[in-house]
Amino acid sequence: MNNSSNGGSRPKKAAVLICLFEGEKGLRVILTKRSSTLSTHSGEVSLPGGKADKDDVDDADTATREAKEEIGLDPSLVNVVTLLEPFLSKHLLRVIPVIGILTDRNAFNPTPNIAEVDDVFDAPLEMFLKDENRRSEEREWLGDRYLIHFFNYETDGKKYLIWGLTAGILIRAASIVYQRPPAFPEQTPKFKPLKGAMGGIERRSPPSVTDNLAKHATGQNFVHS
């Protein structure tokens, strides 16, 4: 992973891929479990992605490039639908979520980069709107209180904990895709970023995301898993 610095006090930029495909019971999202040998966030569940490289064309390029490096996902299999507003981590990393549709689930054979990823799995996107197998903890950042959400998920005999920034991004994505709020208080942090923290990123509203998803879901591009 080649990282580039944005210089000054501006936080580094990253992008993550919210890669969706249609399963038997609705949309599912691809997730990874980070390698237990990594120096930061080892063993945690995350979305494919990473810091921007100076050669990346845009945020979608960053997210799909990193997904290819981490789990062997060919960018040609992903139709990028939209970008969500940036999230700012407590370490002042500016994270741009990129929503994309996996056009052919059967063509994707996960090949994890063992240096970065221990496991690849998928989960129903709608679970991040339900108050099931979820708990939250109140935290404080620069004088503001907010909630960190924790979702327990089990598949193929394996148990995963999806929490923190990843859970927050998926709650926001699910709310937009399904056009309804979660069944619990979201209470996102009211970050007061440093000057230049948003780095001139356009604040995008994705009103067409559900239309785009519906278009793909009713066409020939979706392959049921």
From TrEMBL:
Pfam families (alphabetical): NUDIX (PF00293)
Keyword Manganese in record: yes
Region (Disordered) location: 40-63
Cofactor: Mg(2+); Mn(2+)
GO cellular component, as recorded: cytoplasm
Signal peptide: none
Example of a GO biological process term: coenzyme A biosynthetic process
UniProt GO molecular function: coenzyme A diphosphatase activity; guanosine-3',5'-bis(diphosphate) 3'-diphosphatase activity; metal ion binding
SUPFAM superfamilies assigned to the protein according to its UniProt record, in alphabetical order: Nudix
Annotated Nudix hydrolase domain residues: 11-146
Protein's name according to its UniProt entry: Nudix hydrolase 15, mitochondrial
Source organism per UniProt: Artemisia annua
